[in-house]
Amino acid sequence: MTGNTKQTNKEVLLSIENKNVVSSYFGAMTFDQKAMRARLPKEVFTALQDTIRAGREITEEIAGVVAHGMKEWAMDNGATHYTHWFQPMTGSTAEKHDAFLSIDRDGTPIERFSGEQLIQGEPDASSFPSGGMRTTFEARGYTAWDPSSPAFLMKGGNCVTLCIPTVFISYNGEALDAKTPLLRSMNAVSKASLRLLETLGTKGVSRVKTFAGVEQEYFLIDKKFYSERPDLIMCGRTLLGAMPPKGQQLEDHYFGAIPDRVLEFMQEVEHELYLLGIPAKTRHNEVAPHQFEIAPLFEEANVATDHNLLIMEVMRKIAEKKGFALLLLEKPFAGINGSGKHNNWSIGTDTGVNLLDPGDTPEKNIQFLVFLVAVLKGVYKRADVLRMSISSIGNDHRLGANEAPPAVVTVFLGDLLERVLDAIESGKIDLKTEKQVLNLGLSQVPVVNKDYTDRNRTSPFAFTGNKFEFRAVGSSQAVSVPNMVLNTLMAEAVDDMADTIEAKIKAGKDRDSAILETLREEITATKAIRYPGDNYSDALQQAAKERGLPNLKNTPEALRVLESKDVQSVFVKYGVLSVEEIESRLNIRLERYVKGVDIEARTLQLMLKTLVIPDVSEYQGDIGSSFNNLLSASDEIGLSKAALKSQAGHYRTLAENLSLLIDLTSELDEVVEKLETLDGEFAKADYCADTILPFMLKVREVADRLELMVDRSRWQLPTYSEMLFEH
Ligand code: ADP
Ligand code: MG
C-alpha cells in the first residue's frame, strides 16, 4: 500500500501530464485524509480523526506516529525542511524552516521529525508583534499544531518545505496570532447554537460549524511599471498619478475576455492551488482595468482563512515569475475601483444542515427564521465591532468611495424576506399553522435572492440566499478577524434568543408561541439595521444618522471601539479574547496604522523631491529656453504680442505650479515632522487621519496637475494610462 502511494505521489508531483484532470492531483501536496490513510496505521488514523472531530489535544504517542508518516510522505515528495506555518498579528503569515537532518550520537546523519517537533515549536517570538503583551510575562512564544487544517508542501526555488499549520501562543497561553481567536470563536458559536437548537427542539446535532467562502479581488500590472514606482513598492498604492482620459467609465472590462497573459497566470495559480487542495472555482475580470477576481469554494472558516492566505501567497509568487506585480492593497489607484474581499459566511450543523438555508418544512423554516433574526440581532448590536474588524489604511480609501460599501454597516435581505419579516412583525402570519409557514414562500428565497443581491451590490452585508456576504472586507486583509467577530456576535445573539425563548417557556408559554413572540420582538428591535436601498446614496448617510447607526469614518475612529468595556466583555464572555489580548491587538493595529501613514508620507516626500520636482524643473528649463529663443526672434518672425503672451502664460502657469509644489513639499516636511512630537498612539493616529493624509492629497493635486503639463519624456514615473492600459 505504502509503496504504491509513494510512487503515485511522486509521479503526480514530478510530471503532471494532464493538468485538465484536476481531480487526479487535487490535494497531492497536502497531508490530507487520503495521504494519512495511506501513511498511518489504521488505529492511529482513526484516533487522529476522532481527536480532530472532538477538538481534543493530540497525545504524544499519536503525534509520534503521525510525525513519522508525515515526514516520510514529505520526503518522498522532495521535502528537506519543515516549518510551523502561523499567522502573527501582522495579517500575514510567518515561517521558520528547520531541516529534517540531524546527526546521531555516533555521527551518522539521519532525517528525523518527532511528535514533539510536530505538535510544538518555539520560534523567536521577539521578532513578532505582541502589542506589549509578553513584556510583563515570558518573552517566549510557542507554535502548536492545528490538526484541523491539513499540512502541506510549499515549493520555492528548488526547495520543498513541509508546512504545518499552527497557532501561536505565549508561555501563559495568550494568543499571539490571528488564528487562535478565530478557532475559539468557532467553538463559541457552536456551543451557543447547540443550545438554541435544543431550545427549538432540533435533535442529533453535536457541533455547529462556521463556513467561509472568500472572493479575492486583485490587480495585476506589468512588473516594469511597478519597479519604477517607489509608492507601489513601499506602500502598495500610488500616491501620485493623474487620471487617464479613459478610466473605467465604459465598464467594458467587467466579465470581458481575460487577456492571454493573465489567463496563463491564472492557470498556473490554479494549478498550484489544486495541488494544495484549495478548491479554486471562479475566475474573472473585475470592474477596473487590470483588476481580476479569484474565488474558491467555501470551507470551514479556519481552513478558508488559511487557504485565502495561501492564495495570496501563491498569486504573489506566480505573478513575480510571469513578470507581473500583484497589487493586493484596497485602493492602488485613486479614482479607479478598489479591491475588496467578499467574505461569504454561514453556519451549519455537523449533520449537513445550513442554518441559514430556508428549508422545505415548517420546522426548518422556523429554525431558519430564528437564526436569520439572530444574525440581524448580532449585526445590529455589534455593527461597530464589525466595522472595526475591517479597518485599515487601504480600506479607508475604499469604503464609501462610491464603489464599495460605506463605513455604515447595514443588512440587505432582499424583497421577499423583507416582506416575510414585515408580515411576522405585523402579526399577519401565525407561524403555528403549518400551511401558512409553507405559504411564506421561503423555499424560493435562495432563487429570488440571487437575482436581487446581484442588483444590490452596494450593501456591506447582504443575504444571498443561504449565506451572508460581508462585502466591506479589504482585499489585503486576512479574514480571520472579520470571521472571528461574526462568530462572536452570532454566539451572543444566539444565546440571547435562547434566553428569551426559554424564559417565555418557563413562564408557561408553549414552545411555538414563545418562538413566534421572540421573533416578533426581535424583528421590531433590529429594524434599524435593515436597509434595502442604495448604500452609496446620501439617503443612507441620513438614515444612519436618524437610526443611530455607527458611522466610523476612519481606522482610528473604528479602533476606539476596542476600548469599550461592553465590547471587551463580549469577547471575554465567549472566551474569544481576554482584555489583555484585546489591548495588544489594539496597540498593534494603531501602531501599524501610524507607521503605515508615516511611510506613505515619507515616500511621497521622496518622490516629490527626487522625481517630480526635478522632472518639472528640467521641463521648465526647456520651456524657458524655448521662450527666450522665441522672444529674441519674435520681431524677426513677426510674432504678434498676443501670440507671445500665450506662450508666456504657459511658461508662467508651469512656473507657478512648480513653485507651489516646492512650497507644499517643504510644508509637508513640517507636517510629517510634527507626528513624532505627539504623545500617545491615538493622538498620532488621529493626526495621521485628520492632517497628514488630507495634506498628502493637497500636494498630490498640484503634482498631478503638473503631470498633465510636462513632456512625457521628462516624466520618469510610469503614468496611470501606462500602468492600466498597456499590457
Ligand atoms: P455570488 O456570485 O452570488 O457572490 P457564488 O455562488 O459565486 O455567489 O459564491 C461566492 C462564494 O460564496 C463562493 O466562495 C462560494 O463557495 C461561497 N458560498 C456558497 N455557499 C456558501 C455558504 N453556504 N456558506 C459560505 N460560503 C458559501
Ligand atoms: Mg459575491
Helix content bin? 40-55%
User: Major beta sheet, specifics?
Assistant: 9 strands, mixed
Q: What is the percentage of strand-forming residues? A: 5-15%
Q: Enumerate how many helices there are, as a single number.
A: 25
CATH topology of the largest domain: Creatine Kinase, Chain A, domain 2
Please tell me the CATH architecture of the largest domain by its name.
2-Layer Sandwich
Overall shape: globular
Give the helix/strand class.
alpha+beta
Summarize the structure.
It holds the Pfam family Gln-synt_C. With about 725 residues, the protein is α+β, with helices and mostly antiparallel strands.
Topology:
Elements: H1 2-14, H2 33-39, H3 42-54, H4 60-76, E1 79-85, E2 97-99, E3 101-103, E4 109-111, H5 115-119, E5 120-121, E6 141-145, E7 152-156, E8 159-170, H6 179-200, E9 208-222, H7 223-226, H8 230-235, H9 260-275, E10 280-285, E11 291-296, E12 299-300, H10 301-321, E13 324-327, E14 341-349, H11 362-381, H12 383-389, H13 393-398, E15 411-412, H14 415-425, H15 434-439, H16 445-455, E16 461-463, E17 468-470, H17 480-506, H18 511-525, H19 538-547, H20 555-559, H21 565-573, H22 579-637, H23 641-675, H24 681-707, H25 720-725
Parallel strand pairs: 1-8, 15-16
Antiparallel strand pairs: 1-2, 3-4, 5-6, 6-8, 7-8, 9-11, 9-12, 9-13, 9-14, 10-11, 14-17, 16-17
Bound molecules: adenosine-5'-diphosphate (ADP) and magnesium ion (MG).
Adenosine-5'-diphosphate (ADP) binds next to strand 9, strand 11 and strand 14.
Domain GS catalytic: 178-612
Domain GS beta-grasp: 80-173
Family: Belongs to the glutamine synthetase family.
